[in-house]
Amino acid sequence: MSDAIRTLENTVLAQIPLARAMQLRLRDYDGDRLTIAAPLAPNSNDKGWAFGGSLVSLLTLAGWSLIVLKLRALGSACDVYVQDSAVRYLAPVWDDFIAQARLAEGESWETFASTLAARGRARLTVDCRVPLADGADACTLQARFVAISKP
User: 10-residue block means of pLDDT along the chain (151 residues)?
Assistant: First the structure.
């Protein structure tokens, strides 16, 4: 795990109580895609599968973390907020799970960075998914995030 991922994971766990309760772990980041993992036990519902609130929380944190890591790599100090999102629950999750985040089709880190530099704020849409063991989607989230430069 890179220092950037470790630092962000420590920050998220220290500052977001829900992330601690969910026992999330940042797993992989390649500059374009981020993966976060969570165990089923603290995130299960009364039926024994993953609680919908845990799924959407992990997906949202994956998208937010993807943008925060990229901004840190660019040397940009920003606050990042989720502006809006749409979630789809497609199948139950019976095991430990991961959430993957990447830019939505048509989005560009370059455009995002240039808009942020010019205006002090920029928006970016991220596609996130919780895959099943067979590769199908259990849950998806498309979210628009806003980054605002810190003064």
Answer: 88 95 95 96 97 97 97 94 98 97 97 97 98 96 97 84
